[in-house]
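Format notes (please read before filing issues)

Several people have asked whether sequences and structure tokens are stored in separate files. They are not. Every record keeps both together, in the order shown below: the sequence lines, then the token lines. Line labels are part of the format and must not be stripped during preprocessing.
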Amino acid sequence: MKRLVFLSVFPLFVSFAGNAQPVSNAFDFNPYFSGGVQAGYNGGLSFQFTGTISNFAQEFPLSLRGSVNYTFLDPGNPVDARKIFINDNTNGTPEKDGHTWDLRLDFMLKANILTNNSYLFFGPRYSMFTANFNFVGGNEFFSVTTNQFGLGGGLETAFRVSSRMNFVVSAGADYFFANNIAGHDTQYSPDGQDINPRNFTYTDADNSVNQPKIAFRVMTGINYFF
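Then the structure lines:
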């Protein structure tokens, strides 16, 4: 009886073994990484550092890119900001500077738009805005800050420079959602839940500083493949 069962099963085993594929062949793909630096306009002079992973999942059409972006920008109106967040004093000579840090995640889809090495990109953003105001001779220095989530997208095109390096040009836009604006001991909120407000509103505070809302971007730089 055992011999009969063996003779019945053995041909099936041989057939299965002959047609089976090695497990490694089922995942025959090669992830690759690249890093880059770009500079351009994003509401002001802007610098971006990126890291990208591509072909990391079989037949997955998108690449993933993480970026850190720093932008110098005009922070807003120091006189208005002083009235809205601090007091009604007018003494001192106003000085100002401002910047944003952006954390960005992009999903990149290859598209033959300008060249065969172009990508549409889109994804979430997180912006950290700081405006610094100093009234020289008026003994008044304060910062206005806001952190915002956003969404953005655009088009990037790459031109081969060498076997490991591309020259890239990108353009796009980001939209940031309204969030609390804080300065000194005062905070204005889009939903009206203000903290220590003066006789002003969130709209007044928003108009006094140049926090990101809709930001158009034009960047260029290099991308290096590891």
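For reference, the curators noted about this record: The chain is about 15% helix and 55% strand. Confidence is low (pLDDT under 50) at residues 2-24.
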